[in-house]
Amino acid sequence: MWFDYSLDKLREYRPEREEPADFDRFWTATLVEARTAPVAAEFAPYDSRLATVEVFDASFAGYGGRRVRGWLIVPRGIGGPLPCVVTYVGYGGTRGRPHEWLFWSAAGYANFVMETWDQGGRGYDADCVTRGIEAPEGYYYRGVYTDAVRAVEAVRSHPMVDASRVIVAGGSQGGGITLAVAGLVPDVAAALPNLPFLCDFRRATTLLDEAPYNQIGRMLKHRRDLVDTVYSTLSYFDGMNFAARAMSPALFSAALADRVTPPSTVFAAYNHYAGPKDMKVWQFNGHEGGGAFQQEAELEFLEKSGLR
Q1: pTM for this model (two decimals)
Q2: What's 166's domain CATH number?
Q3: Is 222 exposed, middle or buried (0-12, 13-18, 19+ CB in 10 A)?
Q4: Which of 171, 231, 246, 291 could serve as a FRET partner for 253 with CA atoms 20 to 30 Å apart?
Q5: Known catalytic residue: 287?
Q6: Cis link prior to 15 (omega < 30° from 0)?
């Protein structure tokens, strides 16, 4: 069951970061370009037939000006502005339906759930992790990370949201996106990367043969000439490099039997994280992680961080 390093070794695992010399310049230029267009956030009231929340069908201008969709869910009858959790979804997932996202509003938070561009519920069959991987400028996650930053900017424009108390959160792919935003937006109030994907790519792609990391290995099996090029591209998107720049309080989670986001890759990002941090370890769980127990831990963490 425990296929990765021992827990003692995981707590010490801090691999060298393969960070390109122009990492900061690349991301500064990317976001400056995106911000030449207004975020143009729109929040249309949505009849969800739910009595305890107000729901808005939201959209904003993301990477290249494309419209990115989301749900804004606000507890009904609670005076604002409120702290807001911006949630990023897992690989291949969608924003789903509003009633699937009632946890944070039940706890008194506003919640913005961002749809990940062009994944559309195709699950691990999506080819996103290799799309455009031959150069950082065209890589799929350049657009996704930019969308995620713009989601924070969009939700801050809503009158029910306290712009100083925006928290970023997500599991798996959503956890990896969370780390990227924490590294790119220095004033987010907290980060909750749950079993984060998109970390320590070199170890993740050589440790095991599970989707979606194995899509990279399968590509390189046929494109033997691109190994160095691919890892060079991935270094611009590795959660370790964003973690080293993130200063907001963060609660991570790792699961020791997780064969989708191996625990060593999670600890690689955690051990490089620059800000205050804590880690929940689920010793006998796979990629489902701590489930409801993790949610309780996140509530406690935010309370202790003064974000209620």
Answers
A1: 0.98
A2: 3.40.50.1820
A3: exposed
A4: 231
A5: yes
A6: no
Q: Which DSSP category does 28 fall into? A: H
CA distance 11 to 1: 19
**CA-based Rg of the chain, rounded to a whole angstrom?**
18
Determine contact, residues 160/140, Cβ cutoff 8 Å: no
Flag whether 1 is in a domain. no
In a domain, 126, yes or no: yes
Query: 91 among the known binding-site residues?
Result: yes
The pairing of strands 42-46 and 53-61 is antiparallel
Q: Which of 248, 253, 258, 264 is catalytic?
A: 258
Respond yes or no: is residue 172 known to be catalytic: yes
Active site residue 158: no
- Which one of the listed residues 57, 157, 162, 287 is annotated catalytic? 287
Catalytic residue among 59, 105, 172, 264: 172
Backbone φ/ψ region at 289: left (φ over 0), alpha (ψ -120 to 50), beta: left
- Structural domain count, the chain: 1
In a domain, 2, yes or no: no
* Average pLDDT per 10 consecutive residues for the chain, totaling 308 residues: 95 98 98 97 98 98 97 93 98 96 98 94 80 98 98 98 98 98 98 98 95 95 97 98 98 98 98 98 98 98 96
Q: Does residue 241 lie in a domain region? A: yes
**Domain hosting residue 127, numbered range:** 7-303
User: What is the Cβ-side half-sphere exposure of residue 190, based on CA atoms within 13 angstroms?
Assistant: 25
